[in-house]
Write a structure and sequence with these properties.
By secondary structure, this protein is of the alpha/beta class. Helices cover 41% and strands 20% of the residues. It has three domains: 25-90 and 142-215, Rossmann fold (3-Layer(aba) Sandwich); 220-294, Helicase, Ruva Protein, domain 3 (Orthogonal Bundle); 300-413, Arc Repressor Mutant, subunit A (Orthogonal Bundle). A five-stranded parallel β-sheet has the order 2-5-6-1-7, sandwiched between helices. A three-stranded antiparallel β-sheet has the order 12-14-13. The protein has a two-stranded antiparallel sheet with strand order 3-4. The radius of gyration is 33 Å and the shape is globular.
Length: 417
């Protein structure tokens, strides 16, 4: 029985796309990675913006051969790192060998017998007594040595996703323990965000000559639009070109968000698998799709940021249209009013705040706004797992939002505020 193509087989937010994989051949990303692997004897560092397709690219290139993947977010120590590898390679932390010993005692003699008057004979009688004893030898494996040996014997590649999540001291220990295996030919690929590309060199200067950097650029609209172009026909549904383009324009240049929107848009139109008869999806359901997505994508992050740090006294100010807001909610609303954009200056935020608070309300002082931005930046860095979704850059007085899902949430959850 042939099963129909499922929605999850086509649009794969968070998974490995097949139908909707876009190689961006004009950038030669796969070619650069294949060549770096062929050249060998170097740490390959692949960098790109958050959720930009680094992992998808590397998995696609590396998976035809043996591949071991370590998630940086799960690593707290060097021992942790090698334990994860050993688990995937099915290497035991200890082993037992059995040793056997055998001893034997043999007794001999003579006997005679026969049938009277007919036969007499002489024979030999032998009797033996055997004892066997066993003992066991237990020993601990050195996981680093055993894991490296297995990786090299299998000609496997080692990929560390989100290498920048690992603390610098642990990074240093890992790089030091991998220098020898890389020299022997082990392929090691480290994935990180752009501003952490040179972490391996920073923590261990000796790898500077064994370092290959491959940068994954932002997605262009012409590349993003290939995702819906390839995906919707695979489900036998039609979507107006203008709607497909809008989906990509509203994704903040992120392929994962495009996959998510396309998937949710199909579900809003009751499409969960290949359609036997061609259907045209209702474009009026796109904005309800956005609103529903915004309640989950980026919303938990937004909630943590708007709560601000605990134990601080809040000053609430009246806002236009009624109600009161504190500085954290007001800042996020002001950023949302401006697009939102990945980069927003302090002056733009202050100007937007004037449009949020009631006309007769004194504006927050510049120092109060900066303090709020600093506090949110610290929450993002210290209280949220993974890559911080935003950062306040003090020197340039600008707010950087790196998480496309937070941008999406700000646009569609706070729309109209």
């Amino acid at each position: 029985m042939i099963h129909p193509v499922r929605l999850r087989d086509v649009f794969t937010p968070g998974g490995l796309p097949l139908v909707t994989y876009v190689s961006r051949d004009h950038l030669e990303l796969e070619k650069n990675l294949v060549e770096a692997l062929a050249r060998g004897f170097a740490f390959i560092v692949v960098t790109g913006p958050t959720k930009s397709g680094k992992s998808v690219l590397c998995r696609r290139v590396l998976q035809p051969n043996a591949l071991v993947i370590v998630e940086g977010g799960q690593i707290r120590s060097e021992a942790d790192f090698w334990s994860h590898i050993a688990y995937q390679l099915r290497i035991a932390s200890g082993a037992t060998k059995m040793r056997g010993e055998t001893s034997a005692t043999i007794a001999t003699g003579e006997t005679s017998g026969g049938i009277a008057g007919i036969l007499q004979a002489k024979g030999a009688l032998a009797q033996s007594d055997t004892e066997q004893s066993t003992s066991s030898l237990s020993f601990n494996n050195v996981l680093v040595l055993d894991a490296v040996e297995h990786l090299l014997q299998r000609n496997a590649s080692l990929m560390v996703d989100d290498f920048h999540y690992i603390d610098p001291q642990t990074q240093r220990s890992i790089i030091q323990s991998l220098k020898g295996p890389v020299f022997k030919g082990l392929s090691v690929v480290l994935l990180a965000v752009p501003h952490r590309a040179f972490d391996p060199v920073a923590v261990e200067n000796e790898v500077e000559g064994r370092f290959k950097h491959i940068a994954i650029p932002q997605w262009a609209l012409d590349d993003l639009i290939l995702i819906p172009n390839q995906g919707f026909p695979a489900l036998n549904v039609e979507v107006e070109r203008s709607i497909q383009r809008r989906i990509c324009e509203d994704s903040f240049g992120n392929p994962l968000l495009v996959q998510e929107i396309c998937s949710e848009f199909c579900l809003k139109n009751n499409v969960a698998e290949f359609q036997n008869g061609a259907r045209t999806l209702d474009g009026k359901l796109l904005e309800p799709t956005y609103t529903a997505m915004a309640e989950s994508k980026g919303f938990p992050t937004y909630q943590k940021l708007k709560r601000g740090p605990p134990g601080r006294r809040r000053q609430f100010r009246p806002v236009k249209g009624g109600g009161e807001e504190d500085i954290y909610t007001a800042i996020l609303a002001s950023v949302a009013r401006l697009g939102p954009k990945p980069t927003t200056t302090l002056e733009d935020i202050r100007a937007s705040l004037r449009e949020i608070f009631a006309a007769d309300v004194p504006m927050p002082a510049k120092a109060e706004i900066i303090s709020g931005l600093n506090n949110m930046s610290n929450i993002a860095k210290n209280k949220m797992p993974g890559e911080p979704p935003l950062e306040w850059v003090t020197d340039d007085q600008r707010l950087e939002i790196t998480d496309p899902f937070l941008l999406f949430c700000l646009k569609w959850s706070l729309r109209g505020q």
